[in-house]
Write a structure and sequence with these properties.
Chain lengths: ~110, ~110
């Protein structure tokens, strides 16, 4: 089955620790995205990537980092500089097709502070 | 002004009711529009794209009014399983897929 796989489903971070969230897709999509969702709020874009070895900051990139070494994979690292990391993190992907393509989501990772 | 605004609800309706959600967007150059559905503590899932001429998918009808920068979603004959949060989503950039999400409108359908 084609899809987007995020892991882990739940993650706990200690003070001063970096943690990495995994996102893998087998849909052959070019573009991948990371969003953060806080309770009662819309999704906010952290980082996005349209091609391998290239990525751009979204609206709330501070305290996060990403890499795109393979088309299928777009891991997100939440660094110790992110002071309020507790949130629901969603990875999405899409084909590049003139901007009218919907994005498809993985089932998310819930990150909490220990 | 937020880029995409929705009434947060909740909308509490009985089974079989017709319910309409509205959404406004600020960027008049926006090119593509979607409605997503998000169940509690789950990921958003595409419900339908919204086309300029309006479009229908079973019990769901989406309308776009570019002049008023307004999008709507109509759900007819509501089912218990329609209970969810409905997200209005706009792509303001032509040729590039960067989506702006509304905060969502919550729908609760009761027996």
């Amino acid at each position: 089955d084609g899809g987007i796989t995020q892991s882990p489903k739940y993650l706990f971070r200690k003070e001063g620790q970096n943690v990495t969230l995994s996102c893998e897709q087998n849909l052959n999509h070019d573009a991948m995205y990371w969003y953060r969702q806080d309770p009662g709020q819309g999704l906010r874009l952290i980082y996005y990537s349209q091609i391998v070895n290239d990525f751009q900051k979204g609206d709330i990139a501070e305290g996060y980092s990403v890499s795109r070494e393979k088309k299928e994979s777009f891991p997100l690292t939440v660094t110790s500089a992110q002071k309020n990391p507790t949130a629901f993190y969603l990875c999405a992907s899409t084909t590049l097709g003139g901007g009218n393509q919907p994005q498809h989501f993985g089932d998310g990772t819930r990150l909490s502070i220990l | 002004r937020k880029e995409v605004e929705q009434d947060p609800g909740p909308f509490n309706v009985p089974e079989g009711a017709t319910v309409a959600f509205n959404c406004t967007y600020s960027n008049s150059a926006s090119q593509s529009f979607f409605w997503y559905r998000q169940d509690c503590r789950k990921e958003p899932k595409l419900l339908m794209s919204v086309y300029s001429s309006g479009n229908e998918d079973g019990r769901f009808t989406a309308q776009l009014n570019r002049a008023s920068q307004y999008i709507s979603l109509l759900i007819r004959d509501s089912k218990l399983s329609d209970s969810a949060t409905y997200l209005c989503v706009v792509n303001p950039f032509e040729g590039y897929n960067k989506l702006i999400f509304g905060a969502g409108t919550r729908l609760a359908v009761h027996p």
